[in-house]
Each structure stands twice: as structure tokens, then as C-alpha cells.
Amino acid sequence: MPYGYIASMRTRPGHRDEVAAILTGGADGLRAAGCHLYLVGLAADDEETLWVTELWESKEHHDASLRLPETREAIARARPMLTGEFTSRETTIAGGLGAP
User: Fold this and answer.
1) Of 82, 77, 76, residue with least CA distance to 16
2) Domains of the chain, first to last
3) Which of 39, 16, 18, 17 is nearest to 27 (CA)?
4) For residue 58, what pLDDT is reported?
5) Does 16 have pLDDT greater than 90?
6) How far apart are CA 45 and CA 77, in angstroms?
7) SS3 call for 92
8) Mean pLDDT, residues 86-91 taken together
9) Residue 16 φ then ψ, to 5°
10) Do β-strands 3-11 and 35-42 pair in parallel, antiparallel, or remain unpaired?
11) Helix (H, G, I), strand (E, B) or coil at 26
12) Reported pTM
């Protein structure tokens, strides 16, 4: 069953674009891991918040992607630029444009 994940993260002042570049830099490899959609959005009303929207083949595919060396490396590079303020939601996909 398709799995959705939506998260926000807050960056330290002046680091949002750098974190966005890290997060989007490995997006090509996600398709092979079972990802159908991976979007990194910049909050329009806050210069330090990023939103990530993901659509996966399944929760298992998403969980497995977090163990990939390139994912772990990207997280390690971004972590020092984050404040630790996160929100997240898991969703079950009912359908829509782009849904498998």
C-alpha cells in the first residue's frame, strides 16, 4: 500500500538553502529505492523552515531508504545545520495526481 510522509524541519539561521541542497542532492537514487515523489519545499513565511513531502511504494521501502549509505551521509551532513525542531506525519495514500 502506498505510504506518505510529510515532515518539517527548522534550520539554524542562514542554512536553509544549504540543507535543501543536501536533501535534494540525493533525490535521484530514491526512485530505485521505491520512492514515487520526493519534494523539498521552502516555507514561504519562515526563512528557516523546510517541508519534505514523500510518497513511497510502502512504509518498508521508506524505512529501508533510511539505511542506505547515501541517505545516512546526507543526514550526517545536514544535522549540524538543524535546530532539532521537527514535525512529521505518516499518511496512507487514498489517491491523487502522481499516486501509483
Assistant:
1) 82
2) 3-92 (3.30.70.100)
3) 39
4) 96
5) yes
6) 25
7) strand
8) 97
9) -60, -45
10) unpaired
11) coil
12) 0.90
Three cell numbers written together for 45: 513565511
Q: Which three cell numbers stand for residue 53?
A: 513531502
Contact call for residues 49 and 41 (beta carbons, < 8 A): no
**Helix, strand counts (H, E) of the chain:** 4, 4
Phi and psi for 21 in degrees, rounded to 5?
-65, -40
Distance between CA atoms of residues 2 and 29, nearest Å? 19
pLDDT at residue 22 greater than cutoff 80? yes
Q: One-letter amino acid identity for 77?
A: R
Beta strands 49-56 and 35-42, pairing class: antiparallel
Q: Residue 84 corresponds to which cell in the numbers above?
A: 532539532
DSSP 8-state class, residue 79: G
Handedness of CA 68, 1, 89, 11 (dihedral sign): positive
pLDDT in tens, 33-65: 999 999 999 999 999 999 999 999 999 999 999
Cβ atoms within 10 Å of 10's Cβ, excluding its own: 19
Distance CA 17, CA 12 (A): 11
